[in-house]
Every structure is written in C-alpha cells, then in structure tokens.
Amino acid sequence: MEKALELIKAEIRELYPYKVDETCCAVKLDANENPYPLPDELRDKVNKALSEASLNRYPDPYARELKELISKWLSLPEDFLMLGNGSDELIQAILIATSWGSPAVVIPTPTFSMYKITGLAVGHSVFEVPLDDSFDIDPSAIIEICRREKAKVIFLSTPNNPTGNRYSDEKVLEVIRESHALVVVDEAYGDFSGKSLIPYLNDHMNLIVLRTLSKIGMAGLRIGIMAANPALISELDKVRLPYNINSLSQAAASVVLKNMDVIEGQIDAITSERERLYDALKEINGVTAYPSEVNFILFKVKNADMVHKELIDKGILIKNLNRQGRLENCMRVTVGTPAENDAFLNAMENI
Predict the structure, then answer these.
(1) 171-186 pLDDT, tens per residue?
(2) Nearest CA to 190 among 271, 259, 258?
(3) Which residues, 6 or more positions from 290, have their beta carbon under 8 angstroms from its beta carbon?
(4) What is the pLDDT of residues 75-118, one digit of tens each?
(5) Which residue in 145, 279, 294, 323 has the most C-beta neighbors within 10 A?
(6) In terms of Cα–Cα distance, which of 135, 132, 146, 139 is closest to 182?
(7) With contact defined as beta carbons under 8 Å apart, do 188 and 157 qualify?
(8) What pTM, to 2 d.p., does this model score?
(9) CA-CA-CA-CA dihedral for 260, 264, 270, 273, to nearest 10
(10) Where are the domains of the chain?
C-alpha cells in the first residue's frame, strides 16, 4: 500500500484538496451561485433541446453553436475563444502548456485556491504576493518576483474571490506590460461588476481573460471561457481534452444564451440585493463588511467558527474562511433571494 502511494508525486501528497462543504441547510449561501432558477418557459425550451440531444453520439468537439453564441455575447471573434469544462479545465490547460523547464506561477493572496493547487499538481513552483490593505495588488512586487523566478504565468482574479473587489485596472495593465509572463485575468465574477479587460486583448499578446457561465445561473453546465490572441488560443487548444463540453451542456447553454435578457434581469436583482445586504451587514454590531463588486460579500466577525456553527444550527450555510493571516475570522456570504438574505440577516442579528 505504502509503495503504491510513493508513486504519487510528493507535491500532490502534500496538497490539501479543494473542499466543498456538503452540509445540508435550507438556506445555502456558500457557493456563489445564482439563487434564481430559470423561469418555466425557458426551462421548457431547455428541456426540449435536451430531449433532442443524440446521447449515443459524441458531442461537437468544437462546440460550434455555443462558441458562436458566446462570440456574439462577448463581442469577440470566435478564433479568440476556447471553451472548457468550467474555468478549472482552462486554468489547468494554461499551466500544463507552460510546465516546461523550471516553471513558476505568481499569484496574489488571498485568492481562488485552485491556482495554487493546480499549479503545484502539474509541476510549477508557486510564489504568493500578499494583497495590500485595500485588497489591491502590488504590481512592483509581482513583476519583481516574476522576473526573478522567470515565472511563466501570473493569475489575477478580478473581481477577486474571496475579497469581492476589482483590482485597479492601471495596476493590472502595468503587470501585463512589464512582465514577460502570461497574465491570466480571471473575470469569473465580471458580470456583476459590469467591467472587463477583454477590450485590451488586441493590444497585449500575453493577456488571457477567463469568463464563465457558472456564476450567472449555469453552474451545473460547467462552461468556462478563455479569451486570448488567436495564435495563443491555437497553441493552448492542443492540450484541451477532446469532447470536453458534453452534448447536454452545449444544448442547454445554447438555449439560455439565446435568452440572455432573463439572465441579465437576474443579475440586476442580485446586484440590487447585494447593496441591501451590504448596508444591513454594516449595521450589525460586531460585523465588519467589505465593499463588493460581485455576488457575495466578505465580512469579519470576532469568532468565525462559532458564528458558522450557529448559522448551520439555524439552517443557513455560508463559507467559513477563517485561517491565520488576512482572512482570520472572515466569512463569505453569497447574495441570495430577498427571503434568503432576510433569513441570514435575522440569524446574524440574533447571534
């Protein structure tokens, strides 16, 4: 048994896996999902498309219809796009393609944990640069480490998970201009801020922008989007797994993308509730809430572990981020429906 485990790379054996909290609660506000289901009329259209899918055949390997719809949605030519089984597959593809020599990746912290987990798994050294007091990046420190370590990839999640803020565009552009690495700007939450660095793709060969359909209501479909210079897309596409977007996901996502007015209405409802939730959290004694441009709010309490447990006892699940450092006693709550947000606020006030 032990000899079999020794065949696994040491860096992987030392990793802590990405943990999904499966605690069953009536109010689930831990995963940054869109709380609104599709309306019945749109759901019927999706069901019809699913019923017509040929499950005995492999899916379209290039997801042509879906890519065409995403191209129109993002106002980008199709050759600028590559689709993945969630953004996680695209992150992995970038890191696999750059894992030659003595590969290194630079990430600000705190940020999305899969950059580090996947980087270490495929053989990169990972260098972390703390965010400043405003949760913004330090371009000079990132560029210095990137040059010193000859890093091939820099990940910048903006808006950032779990802090909820966008990094300064000027600081991000400085990193893109001054580093010789691929700069991956992960805009998984960009739809809630209404801002994007996609317009800069034509100016910077080393810029990659990631988007996703997961946060805006299609988390179950696992559709990630990579946008970059066509020459770069062509190389990265060589490590994409064949048939990576299944037929059902292609069919359902295509229907929803043809009805984006529904999703845009839900995004408006979420951003409106976000402001109400933020204002209410600020008024609760013992809570420090941080400004947000996403569909969740980071906040700090005196004893996060205790608050997390008591919320679960009240049937409410949020994300406990408590660990030493910048996230000590911090928690993250997803913006839910008005009723879910009220239940959470009432529980917090009681606690």
Answers:
(1) 999 999 999 999 999 9
(2) 271
(3) 135, 163, 164, 165, 297, 298, 299, 300
(4) 999 999 999 999 999 999 999 999 999 999 999 999 999 999 99
(5) 294
(6) 146
(7) yes
(8) 0.95
(9) -150
(10) 2-38+261-350, 54-258
